[in-house]
Amino acid sequence: xxxxxxxxxxVLVLGSAFVVAFPQDALKKSCSLSKYRFLVPHELKAVQKMxxxxxxxxxxxxxxxxxxxxxxxxxxxxxxxxDRVMLVEAELDLATAMLGLPTTPGFAKTRQRPxxxxxxxxxxxxxxxxxxxxxxQPSGKLRHWLQKLQTAxxxxxxxxxxxxxxxHLFQVLNDLRCTALQEQCT
Length: 186
Known about the structure:
It contains 8 helices and no strands. It has helices spanning about 1-20, 25, 40-60, 80-100, 105-130, 140-155, 160-165, 170-180. The chain starts with a helix and ends in a 5-residue tail after the last helix. The protein has about 190 residues and is mainly alpha-helical. The protein has one domain (about 35-65, about 75-185): Interferon lambda (Growth Hormone, Chain: A, Up-down Bundle), CATH 1.20.1250.
């Protein structure tokens, strides 16, 4: 019995020393977005189903939106990798915020899976920015787009922001793929 108590005490002491010697942050994996190079087909199908259902809802409304947030004069491939991460993170912030809005029960169910997936991606990107480029300053192109995003959030209706975010989700996913590839892409 005494031997078991000493063994348990030794394990606890060594375990505590290990945690102190290697803080939690040091145990985290390095930033790797490689799992987003090729998106899982069932995630893409869930996003496509949600987008199609949203388009059907849009046909019934008379929304007129002026936002051209996702129409840019530059390609994502022109940005540095840290800029790409910042861009996709901002796009995902908008998308997840819009998918989190109250809606009809049928559409709420359809968007659950895409929302969970996009939220996980956003958290992975935040982790990358925190570990890889915590003090990165955006380039002029990205800074201008981020300002455009902030202006749109203040001036556009929630319905227009929601429509823009959902209808351009595949562009966001392509931007994510380009970021994960960390090389030239179209």
